[in-house]
Design goal:
With 414 residues, this protein is of the alpha/beta class. The chain is built from 13 helices and 17 strands. The chain has three domains: 174 residues, Molybdenum Cofactor Biosythetic Enzyme, Chain A, CATH 3.40.980.10; 77 residues, Alpha-Beta Plaits (2-Layer Sandwich); 152 residues, Maf protein. It is elongated, with a radius of gyration of 29 Å.
Length: 414
């Protein structure tokens, strides 16, 4: 079965409000083997709402409307869904009584427009809302000869979640065939999106029962794999089989096969090797240290380091000879190596990691353009230096630099 989630409210079409309910509902539906195929956001227009509802009924098995069940003039979900289904509304006396009692219990006078919240689509089951004045609705029937399940839910998250879990999930479980959805997320670094897809597409295309999505982010590629089966074990085995084949094809480029971040993976390896890390950062300005320390428990392996943005700080905090900086330039292979070795010695760390580069948009030259970054990793066995050139704006270059610096640590320890 597939589902469509419709978020209703003109405020959701502005830059100031965001739909988060659909994320919650998607998770709950996936747990029951229902795949969300469409998500729609629509403003408070009866005409637009009716059009959206009509389209949803034509293409989805489960349709969930969120919001627009209040008492005001712009709350039009009931009317729109009723129009799309060709059904009338009726005022439910039991809901009217419940509303009156609810207001009286709080010492409030109920406004006449609250009565519209007692309007129920004919054939629908009213769903009590313990946390608000807007009851939901459940409709199970046929539309153009096809079985449909329709839910009308209140918009406030605390109302929607409680109502969905108490009223809708039990009903859905009775209607939805027993199926399980399993997902895996592979994270890849060190290759571009097109290069990655060229190598793995011949593999995942043979798994026609596994949905594969490839996404390019800052410094990493994500492969999202999803399948469904009658049992959890069968779904898990199918996805795991594909993961093994992809990892065999691209090897160390995969740094995570369970969605963990690069900083989490680096932390795992440091702990496994009983190793410690210190950093000296120039162009990344503390970003590497921030990422590492964002992981709980990182104090077990991350000693700290220094943001050595100026040449004077490179000398004072990491022990880089001033003459070396003057001769080679702050952005150079030899200065990067000296930074890594110096911070390792100063902090008495297993590994010393350093980054120096030109993040831009100013400061670049023909010899040392914007995006040029030197990474260095010092250890007992010596110092490795890598020169890289990143494209993009200052924020992107700094993030890429931090990602590749952490990947050096991962590859060293792995």
């Amino acid at each position: 079965m597939n589902a469509e989630i419709i978020a209703i409210g003109s405020e959701l079409l502005t830059p100031y409000r965001q739909d988060t309910n659909s994320l919650y509902l998607t998770d709950k539906l996936n747990q029951m083997g229902v795949e969300v195929s469409f998500k729609t956001v629509v403003g408070d227009s009866l005409e637009n709402l009716t059009q959206v509802a009509t389209v949803a009924f034509s293409r989805a098995d489960v349709i969930i409307f969120m919001g627009g069940l209040g008492p005001t003039e712009d709350d039009l979900t009931r009317e729109a869904v009723a129009a799309a289904l060709g059904l009338p509304l009726r005022r439910d006396p039991a809901i009217v009584t419940w509303l009156e009692e609810r207001f009286a219990a709080h010492g409030w006078k109920m406004a006449p427009n609250n009565l519209k919240q007692a309007d129920v689509i004919v054939g629908a089951t009213s769903l009590p809302n313990a946390n608000g004045s807007a009851p939901g609705m459940w409709i199970s029937g046929k539309y153009d000869g096809h079985a449909k399940i329709t839910m009308l839910l209140p918009g406030p998250p605390h109302e929607l979640k409680a109502l969905f879990e108490e009223q809708c999930i039990p009903r859905l479980r009775a209607k939805v065939p027993a199926q399980f959805i399993v997902t895996r997320e592979l994270k890849i670094t060190g290759m571009g999106e097109s290069q990655c897809d060229a190598r793995v597409a011949p593999i995942y295309k043979t798994f026609t029962d596994v949905q594969t999505t490839i996404l390019a982010g800052a410094g990493e590629i994500q492969l999202h794999l999803k399948t469904r089966a009658a049992t959890l074990d069968a779904a898990q085995e199918r996805v795991d089989e594909l993961v093994e084949l992809i990892e065999a094809e691209i090897g160390d480029f995969v740094f995570s096969d369970n969605g963990d971040s690069m900083e989490q993976i680096v932390g795992y390896y440091l702990q496994m090797r009983s190793a410690t890390l210190a950093v000296a950062e120039s162009c990344t300005g503390g970003l590497i240290g921030e990422r590492i320390s964002s992981v709980s428990g990182s104090s077990r392996y991350f000693l700290g380091g220094a943001v050595v943005y100026s040449n004077e700080m490179k000398t004072e905090l990491a022990g880089v000879p001033a003459r070396l900086i003057q001769k080679e330039g702050a952005v150079s292979s030899k200065v990067a190596a000296a930074l890594a070795e110096g911070i390792r010695t100063r902090c008495d760390a297993t590994l010393g990691l350093a980054v120096t580069g030109v993040a831009g948009p100013n400061g670049g030259t023909a010899e040392k353009p914007v995006g040029l970054v030197f990474h260095a990793l010092a250890s007992d066995s010596g110092t490795e230096v890598v020169e890289r050139k990143f494209a993009g704006d200052r924020k992107r270059i700094r993030w890429f630099a931090s990602q590749q610096a952490l990947d050096m640590v991962r590859r060293k320890l792995k």
